[in-house]
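Dear colleagues,

As part of the handover before I leave the project, I'm documenting each prediction I ran so the next person doesn't have to rerun anything. This entry is a single chain, and its sequence is reproduced below.
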Amino acid sequence: MNTLTAMATYVEVARAGSFSAAARQLGVSTTAVSRHVADLEQMLGVTLLRRSTRSVSPTEAGSQYLPRAAAALEEINRLNLEIADTGEEPQGQLRITTPPTVGHTSIALLAVEFAETYPKVSLELEITQRVVDLVAEGFDAAIRYGQLKSSSLISHRIIELRYQLFASPEYLRRAGTPTRPEDVSNHDCIGWFGSANPNDWIFLKDGRSISVPIRCRLQVTDLEAQRTAALRGLGLATLPCLSVQDDLREGRLVPLLTDHELHKSILSLVRPGTPFMPTKLRVFIDFITAALRRGSVPGSNG
């Protein structure tokens, strides 16, 4: 008797509720299924299934055996997959979604470098503000901002995002440059609609916090819209430093009050909650995480 085959057969029968349904699922005869279960019962010295002409159901012993047998088989399968995948060259299609602010400025550039480094991986990168249903739409992973809601998705932390105050040179010529947090109250601001403190920004320095009332000319729930508004001179905006590297290099935005710290956030990659992660996704996560943590985004000054 092959013990693993017998265990797997029993698990399938118990879940399906019949020998014939399990046989169809396993692609073997009903006689073979019945024999495997009988052999397992004989080895264990207990009856695992109650049998009737129409259905089967686990006995008390069978109910105790089922979850642990299923977990053991799953762990063995996971181990086999991981070992088989060790050393495999990344290949196949990889579908990733990312929000525009970090997508346009960082992830898209890293995607090009990744494609050059791993020529056997066909990478699809969708840059979108919407929250994609990874499983329903067939995506391997998503890059997301902030505190993630509890879900079945598995999260991989990439980097901590540091936020800074920015404005366009045009706006500063028109409205003046704030030199201390209190000056911000006299400026037009671009805020985050629905935030916990929509009428205040908090600045930190040397362990001391300064809460400054703000006058929002525009409030949105989209970082790319905030960035666009700042570029067009609508006012001051707090943005992730990672998302404005090109704007800083080209002089389109100016950092303000750099000796003060604003709030921080997290950039993460989330993937469906399957136990096995293919090589192509693992190397993608490692690739972008290493690049962003050392600040080496292609075409950027870091």
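The two ends are 61 Å apart (CA to CA). The longest strand covers residues 154-167.

All the best with the project,
I.
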